Amino acid sequence: MTNELNKSRLKKMFRTMLISRALDERVWILNRQGKAAIAASAQGHEASQVACIEALDPSLDHFLIYYRQFTVTLALGTTPEEQLRTFLAKDGEIMSGARQFPLHGSHPRVDLFSFSNVVGTQLPQAVGVALADKMRDSNAVTVVFFGDGAASQGDCHEAMNFASIHSLPVIFFCENNGYAISVPLSKQMAVENISSRAAGYGMPGVLVDGTDIFDVFEATSEAANRARRGEGPTLIESTVERLLPHTTDDDHSKYRRKDDIEGLSRMDPLPITAEKLVSINVLSKSDIQMMEKEAKLIVDDATEKIGNEPYPGVETMLLHSDLEF
Ligand SMILES: Cc1ncc(C[n+]2csc(CCOP(=O)(O)OP(=O)(O)O)c2C)c(N)n1
Question: What is the mean pLDDT of residues 5-25?
């Protein structure tokens, strides 16, 4: 795969961002209608996630995610219908059989596994995957996504330390949105940037603007090349804003200042990316309007279809458990 971002790749990335946003907005509406139990939004993280995936090779590389990787899962090839089936817990839901928090479980078709709510567990798991790849002489890179809050877990330290000692092909991709639920970054760490911690493990630490697809793409490509050359892990800190509260159950007006919340839209990656793509003649304003319409139509169709599907039958309630009816 070439590492050039040509027009068609840029269009595809922006389309994924638009579908992610339309679907994410729809899920919040479905939550307020009492149809979707809970959702953690990726709004604000779309550019960061889509550009990171674009720099890698999904047919070879491994991705360990957590609950906020809505755009990642779409970029890796899950469909809007699958996503809605997950959020609405409908029969045939692929990740956990409609038994879990959305975006939890496994998605074998796109090689995603073991994603959960237990903050930080994906970090040592990713290092294990990378160790297996190194032992098999595979050229694969493992990318692990985590938040600023997860960076405070012991798991994070152990994973980075081990990966660096053994020069494992890992990209530690921290999406720093400044909050772990209601806890701001300043109460998580006494340093300004998570990326500066990389020096303590003997690996490069790179700070990128997570609203800039070009910046994220370049940093991730460089980290992947480094990993494939056998030079070990890289820590990338991608700064983003969490545009919405932690989940649909949260109210960030209780812990964020009013002017802070009002200023969030300045860090919205959708208009930022749209403006960039127009300025370099990849898209026109009318292309963007058409693409926005298309994304809404895709989401409308999926909502209509999945909304009418049945829930799992009550007779399946105790499947895979030791309990009996
Ligand atoms: C081990 C563990 N501790 C605490 C929690 C409760 N919890 C759920 S999400 C979360 C915040 C995580 O924040 P961050 O890693 O910054 O990711 P973000 O949600 O901001 O994307 C916490 C503390 C948990 N699920 N697991």
Answer: 98
